[in-house]
TrEMBL record:
Domain annotation Alcohol dehydrogenase-like N-terminal: ranges: 50-181
Similarity comment: Belongs to the zinc-containing alcohol dehydrogenase family. Class-III subfamily.
Residue ranges constituting the Alcohol dehydrogenase-like C-terminal domain according to the UniProt record: 222-347
Keyword Coiled coil: no
GO terms classed as biological process: formaldehyde catabolic process
Organism classification: Eukaryota, Viridiplantae, Streptophyta, Embryophyta, Tracheophyta
Protein name (database record): Alcohol dehydrogenase
Cofactor(s) it depends on: Zn(2+)
Organism per entry: Tetracentron sinense (Spur-leaf)
GO molecular function: S-(hydroxymethyl)glutathione dehydrogenase [NAD(P)+] activity; zinc ion binding
């Protein structure tokens, strides 16, 4: 799908018929932890002040959606709920005070918002926002503490990660909506809502991977492969992928991974193998698996004196980091990243442009495409490790 002409936009909806009105549409509602998604009719309220209602065109599924669906911890147990946070769509209507977008604009939602005014947004040291940062506890809108979704009989349906994209229409705070180039390939732009931005940004912004450096990536899902793509584009001379799924070796080779290590094939710890391969350890390691034992291996796989480990994986259990404070005295460092340290509203449009120019290759991340009605099948593909990103068309 290419640019969005006025004719194309009007093919999706007629703003004059819906603006200011409640919209009845299809959404995938999950009613309890681990329960199948039910595609049913919901009601979507108009946007309040500084809110935006968008028509979702494509949405994809991330492991964070999977964890929330399972209800792995108390922060993710607000049900019924509309999950989803990777998508691309067009603006249907805007609330009072929204000046940076209008009806018909192509946009991507972001779970880590940017208001542009708070002390965090004005700082160059963080991409967090005081009010609209990612918050797994949040399940309602910021302006009034209410939801914009409800069932046909009026029961509230909760929001998810500032976004809720498993629906034909959704309402977001304007701080969590990014306008993109109308000539952008919209299917691929869906990837920038989370996975690709997080992985590439971790390599570019968080680690600042240098030309000629060595990298180890633990977990070759979409985020891990995005790290590989980011490291490749920065000129890394050695990119080692680590995964227990042997199929990831072939996929990784097409997306920047130069060497593959399967822990199941080793008698000794992974970090010993990587130190042996690299003459002491890699310059950068990235933990993308959400596993604390893997995190320790990633940390120890870096070179002492200067090695840096970046944490990208989501860790839903109450277990703490298995590192002794004295291990940091060898010069290794550990840091986490949210959304690849991109400031969403101010920096994502330029990143999208770089992707359009081929600086980052987005081909290969979308491994499956299904109609929205088959969302349960799409989730099973992710559970079975068969997909990177399954794109659902609404």
């Amino acid at each position: 799908m290419g640019s969005l002409s006025d004719e194309t936009v009007n093919g999706f909806f007629n703003p004059s018929e819906t603006t200011g009105k409640v919209i009845t549409c299809k959404a995938a509602v999950v009613w309890g932890p681990g329960q199948p998604f039910v595609v049913e009719e919901v009601q979507v309220d108009p946007p309040n002040k500084m809110e935006v209602r968008i028509k979702i065109l494509y949405t994809s599924i991330c492991h964070t959606d999977l964890d929330a669906w399972k209800g792995l911890n108390e922060t993710q147990r607000a049900f019924p709920r509309i999950l989803g946070h990777e998508a691309v769509g067009i603006v249907e209507s805007v609330g009072e005070g929204v000046l940076d977008m209008k009806e018909g604009d192509p946009v991507v939602p972001i779970f880590n918002g940017e208001c542009g005014d708070c002390v965090y947004c004005r700082s160059e040291k963080t991409n967090l926002c005081e009010k609209f940062r990612v918050n797994p506890f949040k399940s309602v809108m910021a302006s009034d503490g209410k939801t914009r979704f409800s069932t046909r009989d009026g029961q509230p349906i909760f929001h998810f990660l500032n976004t809720s994209t498993f629906t034909e229409y959704t309402v977001l705070d304007s701080a969590c909506v990014v306008k993109i180039d109308p000539n952008a390939p919209l299917k691929k732009m869906c990837l920038l809502s989370c996975g690709v931005s997080t992985g590439v940004g971790a390599a570019w912004n968080t680690a600042n991977v240098q030309p000629g450096s060595s990298v180890a990536i633990f977990g070759l899902g979409a985020v891990g492969l995005a790290v590989a793509e980011g490291a490749r584009s920065r000129g890394a001379s050695r990119i080692i992928g680590v995964d227990i799924n042997p199929d990831k070796c072939i996929k990784g080779q097409t997306m920047g991974v130069m060497d593959f290590v399967n822990p199941k094939d080793l008698k000794n710890p992974v970090h010993e193998k990587i130190r042996e391969m690299t003459g002491g350890g890699v310059d950068y390691s990235f933990e993308c698996a959400g596993n604390l034992d893997v995190l320790r291996e990633a940390f120890l796989s870096t070179h002492d004196g200067w090695g840096l480990t970046v944490v990208l994986g989501i860790h839903p259990t109450p277990r703490l980091i298995p590192l002794h404070p004295m291990e940091f005295f060898d010069g290794r460092r550990l840091i986490g990243t949210i959304f690849g340290d991109f400031k969403g509203k101010s920096q994502l449009p330029n990143f999208a442009t770089q992707c359009m120019r081929g600086v980052v290759n987005l081909d290969g991340f979308i491994t499956h495409e299904l109609p929205f009605s088959k969302i349960n099948e799409a989730f099973q593909l992710l559970v079975d490790g068969q997909s990177l990103r399954c794109l659902l068309q609404l």
